[in-house]
Amino acid sequence: MLNVGRFSAGGCSGPTRRSFLKMGGSLPLLLGRPALAAPTPPARAARAKSVLLVWLWGAPSHLDTFDPKPDAPPEYRGPFSAIATRTPGVHVTDLLPRIASISDKFALVRSHVSSQSGHPDGGTVALTGFHEKPGPVQPNFGAIVARHRGRRGDLPPFQSVGRGIIQDSVRIVEGYGGGTFGKAWDPFQVVVSNDGSVNLPSLNLLDGITPNRISDRRLLLHRIDTARRQLDAAGIADWERSYQLAYGLLSNPKAREAFDVTRESQETRHRYGYTTFGQSALVARRLIEARVPYVQLNWSQTVEAITPAFDFGWDTHIYNFEMLMDRHCPILDRVLPELMGDLETRGLLEETLVVVISEFGRTPKINPRAARDHWPQCYFSLWSGAGVPTGVVIGRSDRLGEHPIDSPITPLMVGTTITELAGISTRERAEMNVLSGGRVIYDLL
């Protein structure tokens, strides 16, 4: 089932019941107004026609996953064993046997560093390359790719899939969206439940306007004018974007189908697993199939691992080993190979850049609560697709996993590399005034 705000839509049969759009503004496609200006098309072909960023929100431990230290003292190495992968000489922990079997499909980076140790500010740095203070907040890598590609077709070019805007228990991640580009370039939120039902909360229809009446120009103008008077503080660009997306999705069954996992076989849905991350990954794969330029697949909405009312992020200050063994790693080890395999089987991986990353890592030394705390000095990522060299390891950490020995890689380098592979040149980044001072990770090109 696909829910557009409070409007439920099936597949090709179209909308079936009353819907509301409470945002007010204008609908360029209907009212003859120009769409938001699209930038000049890329000057050269992009190796990555789409980018899929798998965001492990909350920060998993590198020692307990992709950078084990079996020879370190017990207060560092933890309880898990190191197992061989398909990449000669490269090991991961025994929590990830299926991912170990596909290590030849990705590049493993073990030398990331960040300047921030808190979640929301660390998330901003990881997703924009820059600190959020003193500001202004820079655009998310997804917003950069989306603006460069422009708005083509009926699907938004930057989509965030999961349970909502990423945050901790206190505040959202400031760098989740458009930043200096404005809210018009925030990601389109796709909210997924563990049963695969999808909600598109930003597309609520105007009060009194149903999908089968959306072509009534006079009625639509009246509703828009009423809403505009009520909500005149909002920016016109945001209104135009909202209505453009609403109309495109409501009027185009093929566009709506991209969000509808019920069109997948029960076998496929079972392979991904009936968890929020599993079903979100399936939605993300469908969006990549629909050639959405940038999709951010979120492990969770909040970082907290076991706090009541939150959704099991990777922030494991307590019960780190229990959570990783019983929940987090089994889910990741199930979903990631399925996602990668499906992309490859469907011929999408060659033109899709997949990046698996978090905001930082966790302390190599186990804390007094028998868990691990925040550690921005060293963490990991996985890269695949779009011609990225695979079956390789980039960067090394020291014997305790505390610091990189060589090739320290910053979030700014991550964003620069993503945009480079997405076809945005140094000159174009300068013209867009983004990622200033960034350099690419040459080993990934």
The largest β sheet comes out as:
11 strands, mixed
* Total domains: 1
Mean pLDDT comes to 86
Strand content: 5-15%
Percent range for helical residues? 25-40%
Rg over CA atoms, rounded to whole Å, is 22 Å
SS elements, strand count: 17
- Order of neighbouring strands in the sheet with most strands: 2-1-9-8-7-10-3-11-14-6-15
CATH architecture: 3-Layer(aba) Sandwich
Uncertain ranges: 5-43
By CATH, the topology is Alkaline Phosphatase, subunit A
Shape: globular
The first-level CATH class name: Alpha Beta
Give the helices and strands as they follow along the chain.
EEHEHEEHEHHEEEHHHHHEHEEEEEEEHH
Tally of separate helices: 13
Structure description:
By secondary structure, the protein is of the alpha/beta class. It has one domain (43-202, 264-444): 3-Layer(aba) Sandwich (Alkaline Phosphatase, subunit A), CATH 3.40.720. The chain is built from 13 helices and 17 strands. The chain has helices spanning 28-31, 74-77, 97-100, 119-128, 141-149, 217-230, 236-251, 253-257, 266-272, 276-289, 320-345, 411-421, 426-432; strands at 2-4, 7-9, 50-55, 82-84, 91-93, 107-112, 158-162, 188-192, 198-199, 294-298, 352-357, 361-362, 374-375, 379-384, 392-394, 396-397, 404-406. The strands form 4 sheets. Strands 2-1-9-8-7-10-3-11-14-6-15 form an 11-stranded mixed sheet, sandwiched between helices. Strands 4-5 form a two-stranded antiparallel sheet. The radius of gyration is 22 Å and the shape is globular. The model is unreliable at 5-43 (pLDDT under 50).
